[in-house]
Specification:
The complex is a heterodimer of chains A (166) and B (116). Chain A contains nine helices and no strands. By secondary structure, chain A is mainly α. Chain B has one domain. The chains are: A mainly alpha (166), B mainly beta (116). Chain B: This is Bacterial Pleckstrin homology domain-containing protein.
């Protein structure tokens, strides 16, 4: 009620990105958030309304801080190999978890995820001049490589096949 | 225990059984526009609850009624902390409701879906 917030909202949201990006939504309790964000429970509810409200704020922050810069870099990628490398080196933990876990259950999350993936596809279109469907295939492959880990060799093999297609 | 349901444009919280005696309230009706969200929060019962007036507070047994904390009013009706749901409000007499429900996950989806 008009009391100044005794915490840095931006820092708290950034800490929530790390927490929600590393663990399932249900695996992050309000106690975890209170302990890791340096926020009192009351302030957390007052500021974000609910755990879901904080999750949405964290997801949007992740898209702005981590995914948008990737799209910008992708748009300047000279070839598929670079596009794959940029994507597999990015920190996309929360985006991937959101796509798998929350998007099917939460329309707002689904819309954010779809829009972010669309931005990545468009960046690949802009960079490589390929059709939108192929760009979507390339970003899907890149995210798949990121999920599997140890992306270098599989990525190189894929790029070797794809790059002459430009 | 509380029953939470949506009635048109309102969120209705019905306090069940003897709890309404301790909580001194049998139901609360909140316009959905004043509901900010719902969260399952088993840990909240371990936090300081502030000063009770009026209602009943027997630590470890029941927390029911109106509590004053940091200049806010919080309505409590919880015996089993593992089933506590926090409903955050705006522009209401209570800043938030902390109520025990049968199925916290279902209650959270019900409220969050009604808002979006």
């Amino acid at each position: 009620m008009g009391r100044p917030r005794a915490f840095d909202e931006g820092e708290a949201v950034r800490a929530a990105v790390a927490l929600f990006g590393g663990r399932a939504y249900d695996g992050v309790s309000v106690d975890d958030l209170v302990n890791h964000l340096g926020v009192h429970r009351n302030s957390l509810y007052k500021t974000f309304g609910s755990k879901r409200g904080l999750y949405l704020a964290a997801l949007r922050r992740h898209l702005a801080d981590d995914v948008r810069p990737l799209a910008v870099a992708l748009a300047a990628a000279p070839d598929v190999a670079t596009a794959l490398r940029l994507t597999t080196e990015a920190d996309l933990g929360l985006l991937l978890l959101a796509a798998v876990e929350r998007a099917p259950a939460d329309e707002e999350v689904a819309a954010e995820v779809a829009s972010a993936l669309g931005d990545l596809d468009q960046a690949v279109v802009d960079a490589l001049g390929v059709p939108a469907e192929l760009a979507a295939g390339i970003t899907a492959a890149a995210l798949g490589l990121l999920l599997r880990g140890d992306a270098d060799r599989a990525g190189a093999a894929l790029a070797e096949r794809l790059d002459p297609l430009r | 225990m509380a029953l939470v349901h949506i009635d048109g444009e309102d969120l209705v919280v019905v306090i069940e059984g003897l709890d309404k005696l301790w909580a001194l309230k049998s139901s609360l009706t909140i316009p959905l526009v004043n509901v900010r969200g719902a969260t399952a929060d088993p840990g909240i019962s371990a936090d300081p609850k502030g000063i009770r007036a009026p209602g009943a507070h027997v630590p470890g047994v029941i927390t029911a009624g109106t509590f004053h904390l940091d200049g806010e009013k919080v309505f409590w009706d919880v015996k089993d902390p593992s089933k506590a749901v926090v409903i955050e409000l705006a522009d209401e007499r209570y800043a938030r409701l902390v109520v025990q429900v049968d199925d916290p996950r279902a209650t959270v989806s019900l409220v969050e879906n009604a808002l979006s």
